[in-house]
Amino acid sequence: MDLVLREHQMGVVDKLRQGFKDGHRCQLLYAPTGFGKTEVAIYLMKATADNYKRAAMILDRIVLIDQTSLRLTKYSINHGVLQADHWKKDPTQRIQICSSQTIERRQNFPDIDLLVVDECHITRKQITEIIQTNPKIKVIGLTATPFTKGLGHIYSNVVCASTTESLVNDKWLAPLRVFIAKEIDMKGAKKLAGEWSPEEVTKRGMQITGDIVAEWIKKCHEVFGRPRKTIVFCAGVAHGQDLVEQFARKGYNFVSISYKDSGEYKQEVIDDFAKPDTDIHGLIATDILTRGFDVPDVMVGVSARPFSKSLSSHIQQLGRVMRSYEGKEFGLWLDHSGNYIRFREDWEEIYAEGVKDLDKKIEKTKKEPTEGEKAEQQCPQCHALWIKGSHSCASCGYVRPRRQIEAVEGELIELGFNGRVEKDVKQKFYSELLYIAQEKLYNPYWASNKYREKFGVWPRGLDEVRRVPSLETQKWVQHRNIAWSKRQNKMRKVA
Prior knowledge:
The chain is of the alpha/beta class and 495 residues long. The chain has 18 helices and 15 strands.
């Protein structure tokens, strides 16, 4: 089978090549899960080898090394594997797939021209030293979550391959349908380096195991009419085992895997789970499934491991359920961790805009939302994620009582998944505001401020094009102006 890149992947190759021509020796390729970063890396390594030069790719897990080697074999690309006692060891090959641990134990680094660092947001001291002490090697780092402090000191150029929103719109990824379920209570829990301690997370997670099982059964039958293939991100090993037992009592076959299991056993379980006719309803793990796990027909994700700081882990988990599959219209996300609301603002920005600058969004401990803020972001009837700017639930149709004393005529807005208004709807509204601003000779920032009034965010990533406003938009602006005038009159009377 020949390796043929899709059009948007080939565009990334061109950008990386241009980056090297512009003098950037170390470049970071940002792309969401499902973009095909590994295929892009394989293409570039093959091109290097075809030019009689040498390339290497560093990965930090045995399962990832074997997966990458299998992909190269699928494309009939000769390569060796640099890992202790690996059967495919062959240092004469121009392409080497390397274990980071093996590389770190070696006294000398292989003579190569191109180095690809997988999951480069996991910075390892020795690998960073290799990059910095070998100035002739060109470097490409791959990641979907470049939020680690200091990446900007390693990589001088960021290539943003695509946004998650674009991949969803083009059907390369599936959108998410999110429900906010009963949350693990982490109030007063001990933290270590900004994250809740594993012991606290496990103990508190086990207190709602029954709720997690009950919610999964309920939502699977409500949404799909039957159980669907599921992955559960649990709070710890003991929590995972407790979930297995309680799922079994309800007649469902869930399997928990952890660092305590052998690599062979974990791979056997994942291979069995990946089969279309598997009798495993779901896999349960803490972090094993966040990287290198590629089972696209997973339909349900259960988040039961709270993070106070790790935006990367949260996004990696979401990505496991968003891979496209024939007949898959969306992935179902059941949030028991509080992570979706905790990281919602960051996730929605990354979803729409991607990442263009390193060290801009460094992971920091998030301030916990208040109970009122949490309630505002979910439907009180079905607990679906409440779409910002909407007066009714996109899942069950519940209409939230208006709190405004003055009635403001609204408009029906086509809403998408992931709690987002579709981008073309936003662009249309913004373009109409720009037209009104020009016609009325308003301040240049008037359109942006009105847009923010409606959607709660600034119009980032939208085109500065004007469009004749619809009647609905004209009425909206008129009512906002009337409301503003009334407030001004009240203030004058008070004064």
